[in-house]
Design a protein that fits this description.
Layout lengths: L14 E5 L5 H13 L15 E5 L10 H4 L1 E5 L6 E5 H7 L1 H10 L6 H7 L2 E3 L13 E3 L4
Parallel strand pairs: 1-2, 1-6, 2-5
Antiparallel strand pairs: 3-4
Helix pairs in contact: 1-4, 3-4
């Protein structure tokens, strides 16, 4: 018996739909990261992108627990002196809800070329409509 390793060309990808309405940000992000990595598949191979495509809808209706809506802060820096900019979770969710989920999921993916390839399979939309109906994504229900 030898260990099976998936090859790049023999990976079959599916499409998965996650409805984020009323769900907690971290739970949605960790499930999406597992699906993108392919960890829920029996042919998971660490050095090959075996994951599926993930479509997350209703990103604007996601929630966080505790006081994170006011306390959680996203930082970015322009590279110039004094160029630190910050915004809270509540303002980020109001301005661009897709980026909040993308930021959480990408933080759970590997920080290398493979992780960037996995991140490209993530599609996030603020409304319940999405342009991936033709792929017939199977819906995954999260417990509230």
């Amino acid at each position: 018996m030898s260990t099976y390793y998936a090859k790049k060309g023999e990976v079959e990808r599916e499409w998965v739909l996650i409805d984020a309405e009323g769900q907690v940000l971290g739970r949605v992000a960790s499930l999406a990261a597992q699906i993108l990595k392919g960890k829920l598949k029996p042919q998971y191979t660490p050095h090959v992108d075996t994951g599926d495509f993930v479509v997350i809808v209703n990103a604007d209706k996601i929630k966080v627990t505790g006081a994170k809506a006011a306390d959680k802060v996203y930082y970015r820096h322009s590279g110039y002196p004094g160029g630190l900019k910050s915004e809270t979770f509540a303002t980020a969710l109001a301005k661009h809800p897709e980026r909040v989920i993308e930021h959480a999921v990408r933080g759970m993916l590997p920080k290398n070329t493979l992780g960037r390839a996995m991140g490209k399979k993530l599609k996030v939309y603020a409304c319940p409509a999405h342009p991936h109906q033709a792929q017939q994504p199977r819906e995954i229900k999260l417990e509230a």
